From TrEMBL:
It is found in: Cytoplasm. One of its GO terms (cellular component) is cytoplasm. Keywords: Cytoplasm. Belongs to the peptidase C65 family. Otulin subfamily. PANTHER family: INACTIVE UBIQUITIN THIOESTERASE OTULINL, OTU DEUBIQUITINASE WITH LINEAR LINKAGE-SPECIFICITY A-RELATED. The lineage of its organism: Eukaryota, Metazoa, Chordata, Craniata, Vertebrata. The keyword Transmembrane helix does not apply. InterPro entries: FAM105, OTULINL. It comes from the Eukaryota. This is OTU deubiquitinase with linear linkage specificity like.
Length: 358
């Protein structure tokens, strides 16, 4: 018992320095725990921030991706719309390979389809026509095909147009030759007659003169082509030009008719014209034939003769449906009075025309 109390009193009298190592270990443990907790908290904060930033970045990327796809679809739609609109308005299309066009248009095995394919092969291999320009199918297409080539090639005015102011021709017919029936002139699908017909015709002829002068003065082929693409996509201007051509034809018929009445020698094609009951004089020619052009019908063969004569060009037409006959290749007029420029057309039915490219 005494021994126990002695040991107890000895332990109670131990110096305080004996407890320091244990206290230091407790402090180290505490600081380690606090540091670990601080790092853990900091990591959770950083991890949360990084996760939030990544999520935000992913959302932004997803938004821009959807926006890009949406804008891409809208841009594609607008490009397609503009291309369709431009193509629809362009009345003379770009060049395409002749045989490719033939293969697309004439796929059948009917006798007529085989004949057309042989005719196109003839043009490609023997006539050296490699491409074709498709022309809008309407009742102006013959006039369009001829005028497009005149402008795109920069051909000069006919000699008789250089000697006269063609803008004054409508009034000349009325006041000098007493053709008051000109008031019944019809502007294609526009059923218009009246005293103001002279003003409308004057504007049409003035536009033709202005455009022809401009194109004939341009020496650069590519620039003329670009201007043709612009002009022949404006339906309103086109109609005015074609009506001017119709009037030029009517003026020539009237002039030759007056010559015939004075017993002068006239070209044979006009004698043929005036022998028809429906075109025995300029008035009947206008009422029965010319007024319908652009509205219910296009140019007939006799009209093609008059057009070539009036514009002083030799119009060569490949009539594909007449392949293997002497009428496969015809010229309007057959015998030009001078060395007139030659313009080529091709037709599959004598109603609609396209432009061959050599």
């Amino acid at each position: 018992m005494k021994l126990y109390e002695h040991l107890r009193s000895s332990l109670s009298r131990r110096p305080e320095s004996c407890w320091y190592p244990q206290q230091r270990n407790d402090q180290v443990h505490t600081w380690t725990l606090v540091t670990s907790q601080a790092l853990d908290t900091a990591w959770r904060v950083v991890k949360g921030s990084v996760t939030l930033a990544v999520s935000l970045l992913a959302a932004i990327l997803c938004y821009f991706r959807r926006l890009h796809l949406h804008l891409g679809h809208r841009l594609k739609w607008w490009i397609g719309y503009l291309q369709r609109r431009f193509k629809r308005n362009l009345s003379v299309e770009a060049e395409v390979d002749l045989l490719s066009y033939c293969a697309r248009e004439w796929k059948g095995e009917t006798p007529h389809a085989k004949l057309m394919r042989k005719a196109y092969e003839e043009l490609f291999w023997r006539r050296h026509i490699k491409c074709v320009r498709q022309v809008r199918r309407d009742n102006y297409d013959a006039l369009r095909s001829v005028l497009f080539q005149i402008f795109s090639r920069g051909l000069a005015f006919p000699s008789w147009m250089k000697e006269k102011d063609i803008v004054k021709l409508p009034e000349k017919l009325l006041f000098s030759q007493g053709c008051n029936w000109i008031q019944q002139y019809s502007f294609g699908p526009e059923k218009y007659t009246g005293s103001n017909v002279f003003g409308k015709l004057r504007k049409c002829v003035e536009l033709l003169k202005t455009q022809w002068t401009e194109f004939s003065g341009i020496k650069d082929y590519h620039k003329r082509g670009s201007m043709c693409n612009i002009l022949f996509s404006d339906a309103l201007l086109e109609c005015k030009l074609y009506e001017a051509l119709k009037f030029i034809m009517l003026y020539q018929v009237t002039e030759v008719y007056e010559q015939m009445k004075t017993k002068k020698v006239i070209p044979s094609l006009f004698r043929l014209l005036f022998t028809r009951e429906t075109s025995s004089d300029p008035l009947s020619f206008m009422m029965n034939h010319l007024n319908s052009v652009g509205d219910t019908c296009g140019l007939e063969q006799i009209d093609m003769f008059i057009l070539g004569y009036s514009l002083e060009v030799k119009i060569k037409v490949f009539r594909l449906f007449k392949f293997n006959s002497r009428d496969f290749e015809v010229c309007y007029p057959e015998e030009s009075l001078r060395e007139w420029p030659e313009i080529s057309l091709l037709t599959e039915n004598d109603r609609h025309y396209h432009i061959p490219v050599f």
